[in-house]
Amino acid sequence: MKRYETRNCLLCNSSLNEPITWKLFLTNTFPKTICLECEQKFEFYNPSQQEEQDIISLYKYNDMMKDFIHRYKFMHDVILAKVFRQQIHEHLAKTKAIIVPIPIHPEKLKERTFAHVDQLLKEANIPFQHYLEKITTDTQVGKTRQQRINSPQLFRTTENVDIKGKEFLLVDDIYTTGTTILHAKTTLFKAGAKRVAAFTLIRG
Amino acid sequence: MPYKLVKENHFILYKGIIIEPQIRDFFIGRIWTRVNTPFPQEKIEKYKEQNYFNKKPGISINRSIGIFNRKRYKCNRCHNEQQNEFVQYDCARCNKTCVYCRHCINMGRITSCTDLLLWNGPKPKVKKTHELVWSGAFTDLQSTAAQQLIESLKENRNHLLHAVCGAGKTEILFPAVLYALKKGWRVCIATPRTDVVLELFPRFKKVFPKTILHSLYGNAPSHPGYPQLVIATTHQLFRFENAFDFVIVDEADAFPYTYDRALQKAVLKSKKVGAPIALVTATPSAKILAQMKREKWGYSFISRRYHGHPLPVPRLEPLWSYNKIIQKGRIPKKLLDWTTTRLENKEPFLIFFPTINLMENAIPLFQQLDKKILGVHAEDPERKGKVLKLRNEEIPGLLTTTILERGITIKNVQVAVVGAESKIFNSSALIQISGRVGRNVLFPSGEIVLFHHGITVEMDEARNEIIRFNKEGFRMEAK
């Protein structure tokens, strides 16, 4: 692993000035990619407010996060996947369940040129497997809450995979109404999964 | 030799297309991505087939010379060659490793697998009937400068127009722009600041009523037609290549133009080969001056304001540990006295702060004096409205960061700089700030005070430079 991938903050381009410490050499932490000021603008999501069990979210969807998602997902700045790798790694490295990222449609993938959830996991050094496929190309963006909740099934399981009796952890970038996660969950349960939990970076 | 008659008369299909003027007008001089044009994709592909476009890869890859032979990338849109701004990633579209440029990503991502299109079709006819509707009169200094600029154009050489703040720089450009337009040239006025574009556009539109002119900046509305005069931010020039016969860079010393090499390259790229550039500034850097001498540019210098009065010279005033006092919730005594005098005399004032943080701490303190005092900084969405309020005398004064250092004109404004020793206030910034004062004929003088915690070289330099301007202006009159 490179000790320095970037000397400037990926978000505001000010210089990082990370001191070289023993900790950096001896422990297996990722080098920093954003400056302290940018880091402080992200708000952690408070777990006590969590309504549903089995869903862990890390951050609130504030203005800073909105800007981040815009730059990462819509301006296609792939390197920004590195920003949250430390936090994602800490949360997912020790889980025993099989990690399944929410997939995107192949056509959409061609358009975007990268799978945004897969990229987040790759940068965080988390192994994952695809058990799901997306059927529809339409996105949840621009729909009302009602429309989202009533949308038809979005996923199907990939062929020739054994799901019965296994534990899964779904990973997505953002949780807004929970429709995506719910659809993925029901698909896995129908195929015989024992337990399905979910992890999202952001709670909208 | 017997001739063989061709019996089979093949129907030759006419494969040409009639070019739509909108598409031609839009693409001419521009360098644009193949997708994301304002026109339907099928049309673009059809034009491409007909060879109306030249294609260029988004990022070109060269090998560096030397033992390592490392890859060197270059973005073909912004001409960025800083290797740390290029990012490799696994592209799902091409199933291989592609590269993209982070330097110009705000204008839409350019990867090594995107194509850039350059217009290769016929050029539109340009009008040569242009008219300058302007009733103002030049001072002697102004008219010589305007004449010198036209001379430089005739000789096809670059020009530096060095004029103090409030010398009427924009007006000096009018004759030269008219000369270029009448020759059928395409002219661009570029500036690093959006505020300046917004101020210049209506002025030029008014004096050139018969010319099609466009203003370009981030999120600008689109205009129809082929513009012969373009007023744009320097960032927008990334999207042009080989387009202009004459480029004027206004406020050529402003951030980020001097700092970002890619912007300077963008200007060179946007003009045609050998076309002249004119730099317009009040505070040319030593680098520009040296380049001007080395490359034998045309040079005109105006040391007096259009109304003939001398420039206000800044007064230095110590304000020890202002930072601590403001953080304790008090306004330092001298600053308080200065502000109350302005309020009593009903003079509009600007107070410059080195950081947003310090300014935000100070706003509530000043609002205790007068509720209507406001603060403005770069990320403020109401920044335009607040300046307008000050100009219309709706509010007594504004607290600001360096964003208002140039381009604004307010009648009878009085200026104070708090923390003039800060790094951000270099000599050119201080000269620009001093230049806000006394721009109006009716109020040719005014207060400019630099409150400091120790005098810096930059402050001395700014003060000496202003005194030198005044001396020079006076000497010219004596001749």
UniProtKB/TrEMBL annotation, chain A:
InterPro entries assigned: ComF/GntX_DNA_util-trans, PRTase-like, PRTase_dom
Ranges of residues in domain Phosphoribosyltransferase: 117-203
Domain of life where this protein originates: Bacteria
Gene3D superfamilies: 3.40.50.2020
Pfam families referenced in this protein's UniProt entry, alphabetically: Pribosyltran
UniProt record similarity statement: Belongs to the ComF/GntX family.
Protein name per UniProt: ComF family protein
Species whose genome carries this gene: Lysinibacillus telephonicus
From TrEMBL, chain B:
Transmembrane parts of this sequence: none
Keyword Disulfide bond listed: no
InterPro entries: DEAD/DEAH_box_helicase_dom (IPR011545), Helicase_ATP-bd (IPR014001), Helicase_C-like (IPR001650), P-loop_NTPase (IPR027417)
Ranges of residues in domain Helicase C-terminal: 335-479
Superkingdom, natural source: Bacteria
One of the record's GO molecular function terms: DNA binding
The Helicase ATP-binding domain, residue ranges: 150-302
GO biological process: DNA recombination; DNA replication initiation; double-strand break repair
PANTHER family with a match to the protein in the record: COMF OPERON PROTEIN 1, PRIMOSOMAL PROTEIN N
Protein name (record): DEAD/DEAH box helicase
